[in-house]
Structures are given as structure tokens and as C-alpha cells.
Amino acid sequence: MNRDAASAPLRIAMISYYLPSESKIGVGYQVHELADELARRGHHVDVFSPCAPVEGALYGHVHLPMTGSLRTFRFAFVMRRQDLSSYDVLHAHGEDYWMWRRRVPMHVRTLHGSCFEEAIHIRGLGQKLRMIMLGFTEVLASIVADRTVLISPQTRRWTPWVRTVIPNGVDAARFAPDGTPRSSRPTILFVGTWRQRKRGSELARIFSEEVRPRVPDARLRMVTQDAPSTLPEGVEALGRLSDAELAHEYRTAWVFCLPSSYEGFGIPYAEAMTAGVPVVATPNVGARYVTDRGRYGVVAELDELGGELRALLTDAAWRERLSTASLERAKEFDLRSVADRYEHVYRGGDDVDEFGQR
């Protein structure tokens, strides 16, 4: 490829069932951030989604509304009928598994974790079966695409033939420390859902039973929209926050804790690290990767979580060491670096591992 071709703006079509305008699923936030960054670089980006446009987005939006049951599967058929011939790149974050016929010069698929892995941990037979069905579509998609990308090397368990690993990215300008002081009270921050695999309810219970009695002025601030109206003393549900409000919560927290049973990556872990907040997590694929198996954070079983949180809240020197480690590890997840790696893939570059090496 000549130099001019290697730097020319691309026309990129992205597929995402989720966007932040209507969904709190992390994939949607990552698609939005990546599309914005690529648009800032001069590429023309359109996101095809059943979700409404995101206010202030720098990229284009093709609205394909869906209603009724089995929407994700039906969205895949809708995408199959779209005319993408004007684009240089199709970058799918889901629902491209029926797109066998070549439509663009480069078809890229990002697998945001593994539905097979999630099926192991999710509750309910119906949900497990749904995840298994989606797992097979991920395998099919990895065969359909020209290049498939994993968000962590640990997710390779279910698609061992995929070699390219590019982590999710975080906008350092938004979350990095800006001089805002930490809260005057010992503060744990949680970002996720009260129910299901994020286990917000379990964290609230552990905080109430094991942390608060030993650290009476501690508080747990939960960025969640499905918490019950009555919460234990010291626990606050914040609902949905703006980007600026979320960044402020990270910057003022003493510790971040997300005790998920499963994460393919776990964007909040990386956001917390970017803000220099010590991360405490339970063992899952994403937490092990983002913390590098506990080198840059604390990974503990659920029944050990209370003790680890108490220790961190009462040991300033340990918090400072983990804060420094968090900032160092966060460099690997800088959104600009992630966009660089995707541009390399879009233009047919060599396989890229989790640290951008070829």
C-alpha cells in the first residue's frame, strides 16, 4: 500500500445493536467512543443500530428500529439486506454472522467477550440457552469476517483460531486525574447493575455486613439504575450519570469495586484505573486481564471481598501504591492507542496482540 493510500480517510460502517442513547451495555459505549475517535481523525463513520442517535456524536447514524421478540437475531437479517457498497470497512460489534457475501474491501468483527463463557455464569435456563445460541453466532461471525478481534487474550478459549487482540479503549482526557481531591470520607464506587452478573446487590450486602461495621464513616456509591428504593445505611444509588458526573465519581472515590461473575473485559475497571483509583474485583476473565492477574489491582473471591475492601480503606500507603499501578496499567487502554491499532487492521496490517505488537 502506498503512503497516500495508507493515510487516506476511510469510509467505515459500524454495526452495533447497543448505543448509550438507549442501553447501558458496555459494548454500546465502546462503539460510541471508538466511532467518535475515528471521526475526529477524519474518517467517515456511520453506525447502524436499532438504538436512537447519541446526542453530540461526531459520527453518522443509520437508525434501524426493532420491536417485538428475538430482536438481536432479527437485526442480523436486517443488516444482511443493507447496501454497504460505498464503504471501505465494515466493523461489526455483533449481528454480522449472516453476511457471507463480500460487501466491502475489509470486514472486521470484534468479539466483546464470549457468550459461551457468560452462559456458564448467567442464571436461568432460558438465559443460558440464549447465550449459547449467541455463542454459536460469534463463532460463525469469526468465520464470516476477514479479520476478527478479541478484546482480551483470555477470551481466546472459545475461538482459539483468532490471533488479533485489541483491548477496549478509555478516553484518558475524560477520566484522568485533574487535581480533584478524593472524598473526605472513605468511598467505594460501583458501576453496574444491581442484579444479574454485576452483583451489585452482593456488594451492598458485603459492605453493610463486613465493611461498614469496621469503617463506620465509609460509604458505597452505586452508579446503577435498578437498585431497590430501600438501601442499607451508607449505600447510595446514583442512577444514570452524565459523562462528566461519572468522571467526577471516579476521581473522588477511594476504591472502585465491581464484583462481576463474568466480564469479557470490564470497561469500568479500565476507567477507574485511568482515574488512578485502586480496583477490587472478583475473578473473571476481564478482571484478570485488566489487572494483569492482580498485579495492578486486587482480585479476590466474593467471600474475601469485605476484608480486602476494609484493608484498602484503612491503609493509605497501599491505596497510593495501587493508584500508581493503576495509572501505569491504564496506558494500555488509552482510546487513541486502541484506534491506532484498529486503523492498522482496517488497512490490512499484520495481526496485533494485546500490547499492539506484531
> Which radius of gyration do the C-alpha atoms yield?
20 Å
Strand content: 5-15%
- Assign an overall shape: globular
Helix content: 25-40%
**Order of the strands making up the biggest sheet:** 3-2-1-4-5-6-7
Count of β-strands: 13
Distance from N terminus to C terminus (CA atoms, Å) equals 18 Å
Largest sheet: 7 strands, parallel
Helices and strands, in order, run as HEHEEHEEHHEEHEHEEHEHEHEHHH
Mean pLDDT: 92
Organism: Microbacterium rhizosphaerae
Keywords: Glycosyltransferase, Transferase
Pfam family, one: Glyco_trans_1_4
Protein name: Glycosyltransferase family 4 protein
Summed up:
The protein is of the alpha/beta class and about 350 residues long. It contains 13 helices and 13 strands.
Verbal overview:
This is Glycosyltransferase family 4 protein. Residues 26-174 form the Glycosyltransferase subfamily 4-like N-terminal domain. Its EC number is 2.4.-.-. The chain has 358 residues and is an alpha/beta fold. It is built from 13 helices and 13 strands. The strands form two sheets. Strands 3-2-1-4-5-6-7 form a seven-stranded parallel sheet, sandwiched between helices. Strand 11 (255-258), helix 9 and strand 12 (279-281) form a beta-alpha-beta unit. The longest helix is centred in the middle third of the chain and has 20 residues, at 125-144. It starts with a helix and ends in a 12-residue tail after the last helix. The model is unreliable at 354-358 (pLDDT under 50).
